[in-house]
């Protein structure tokens, strides 16, 4: 009985290690493809389904977030190989704080460990990737805020690629913060709201995506077949003319070929922008 109990305790760790190995192998096989940046420059991904994927493996739901990090690594490399200049991951929403404290602590611990890795910064520098955090700056743990700030400062001079992490981000909250910035600019004489009458696009300069370009394509994972998909308020202004793809694949199960398919379909589609 003791031996059986010991094996049972070790099994989740063994399964997780095997799963992570599968993910690493999967994302080493990136198909050759080149994106025309005139048609698709900014790809945004809503990373949904981490907990469900772990449950399907018989693991604790939280462990899905650990595997999701490896998928983010793989997608970031694939996007560069495919010549996608700007990549945004939405990993933590303003509503996710309402989850149980144990999960919040687990995810924040994972984020701190991943973002502080020397290898992560070195990869950004080696590929001239500018890192930017989207979202609130007042609720994330202090160590994570410091790491995010350091990553932004140390990559601020790069402009070849952009990697954005939307963490404690919500579309409504972003709009509130944008309005606050506009009021502050008006009070300090730096912004004349009259400009919005002739140039409504000026409001985009107050959003988190300022100076980065709007998302051309948004992909949301973990949408079950037959389920009515929703956007969860992701970048409501920026995605007004974006293409949307809803994939049934849970985020940790996403493979390069699966990700590439909606990208290819988007490139074949003629965007009319209301014309």
Which helices and strands, and how do they pair?
Elements: H1 2-26, E1 42-46, H2 50-56, H3 63-81, E2 86-93, H4 101-115, H5 118-126, E3 129-134, H6 142-154, E4 161-169, H7 171-187, H8 195-198, E5 217-220, E6 243-246, H9 256-268
Helix pairs in contact: 1-3, 2-3, 4-6
Describe this structure in words.
With 275 residues, this protein is of the alpha/beta class. It has a single domain, classed as Undecaprenyl pyrophosphate synthetase (3-Layer(aba) Sandwich), CATH 3.40.1180. Helix content is 44%, strand content 13%. It contains nine helices and six strands; from the N terminus they run αβααβααβαβααββα. The chain has helices spanning 2-26, 50-56, 63-81, 101-115, 118-126, 142-154, 171-187, 195-198, 256-268, and strands at residues 42-46, 86-93, 129-134, 161-169, 217-220, 243-246. Strands 3-4-2-1-5-6 form a six-stranded parallel beta sheet, sandwiched between helices. Helix 6 links the parallel strand 3 and strand 4. The chain is globular, with a radius of gyration of 20 Å.
Give descriptors for this structure.
single chain, 275 residues, alpha/beta, disordered N terminus, six-stranded parallel β-sheet, 6 strands, Undecaprenyl pyrophosphate synthetase
Across the major sheet, the strand order is 3-4-2-1-5-6
Helix content: 40-55%
Number of domains: 1
Overall 3D shape: globular
Give the name of the CATH architecture: 3-Layer(aba) Sandwich
Radius of gyration: 20 Å
Return the CATH class: Alpha Beta
Q: Give the class from helix and strand content and strand pairing.
A: alpha/beta
